[in-house]
Amino acid sequence: MKTALITGASRGLGLALARDLAAQGWALILDARGGETLDTVQKELGTVSKVVSIVGDVAQAEHRQKLAQAAAELGGLDAVINNASILGPSPQPNLLDYPLDVLENVYKTNVVAPLGVIQSVKNHLKPNARILNISSDAGVEPYAGWGGYGSSKAALEHLSAILAAENPQFKVYWVDPGDMRTEMHQAAFPGEDISDRPLPEVSVPGLIELLNGDLPGGRYRARTVLEPKPETPSVHWLNLVLQVDDFQAAADFFGKHLGLPIQKEWHDSGHGVLFSAGRATIEIADATQIAEVDRVEVGHAVNDAVRLALGVRDVEQASADVQAGGAKALHTVVDTDWGHHNQRLTMPDGLPIKALTLFQEKDNPS
Ligand SMILES: NC(=O)c1ccc[n+]([C@@H]2O[C@H](COP(=O)([O-])OP(=O)(O)OC[C@H]3O[C@@H](n4cnc5c(N)ncnc54)[C@H](OP(=O)(O)O)[C@@H]3O)[C@@H](O)[C@H]2O)c1
Question: Is the CB of 148 under 6 A from ligand 1?
């Protein structure tokens, strides 16, 4: 049986998460300041799983000690979820008018208390335990009028990041749950209809993945945790290596005439230059396809097995430049069916690739 401590679990996100974990058989330690609501939750979830509920304020050290005591009695914690948080006054004052004693209270509950909870239970965290600190987009975005709450969440985020760096033995996550239809949200938008905001249950699956899965520590948005990640291809760079007899002539052709910027140079026993050549792709084609491309670009089949095709800003200008460097045009510039303005040329003598295409994408001329 896994065990989690969730602060602020009598309603809202904390309760939604507690319900899900209880259904999965997790033992739970829950708290909230309001005893009556917490009792109702104890009655509901106590029939589903082992639940210890402790009334109290996370900002109080004695209360945090009671949470730690419960953690010890349950044999240690697999997860701590610092969810309890306060908004502060509503409407929220601008920072220049924010009463500092009130700001201190917001910080005590939203920043100092979560660290206090972790410090209190640190000796009862099982290996690979998860620490989830519930943050907010207001901790990242500087919304006017959200200075007290927002800056407390920003502090919680940075605190979490440093905690993660200092404690690689645990997985530390700081998570933005997104807007949720809860008491806190209604308090932030007094008198407004918030029925379009999703219920907190929508943010729970992402939190569950962080608790049960193996994602690296860091900042997450609860509702995107389960979204498939775009595949990153392992190859990210094509470098075409040409062995040339006349190094200087080839260097001049690519550097002076084509105008490619030098990225790196080697002058060891031999000479080498790496030119930046924009974005690289590899195109493979069968003989029929090559013949068709030749027909459009040149007017007849050429059938070169290797051809350098360079996307340029201005085909006419680039063509004039490379012809000045020894390239020979096979044909005038043509417009292809595939949206290119292009010209086929042969490279200057001495280069191991004979065929060169200069092309300009017509709908993306720059
Ligand atoms: N709702 C949103 O749109 C939204 C958006 C971004 C981030 N968040 C974050 O998500 C988390 C949950 O928010 P929520 O909307 O579910 O809030 P909520 O509806 O106000 O619920 C907060 C829970 O925490 C308890 N709590 C508050 N202060 C406490 C304290 N000092 N000690 C112990 N328990 C305390 C509350 O019970 P008692 O009042 O009885 O103590 C309640 O159970 C918070 O960290 C919040 O900042 C919410």
Answer: no
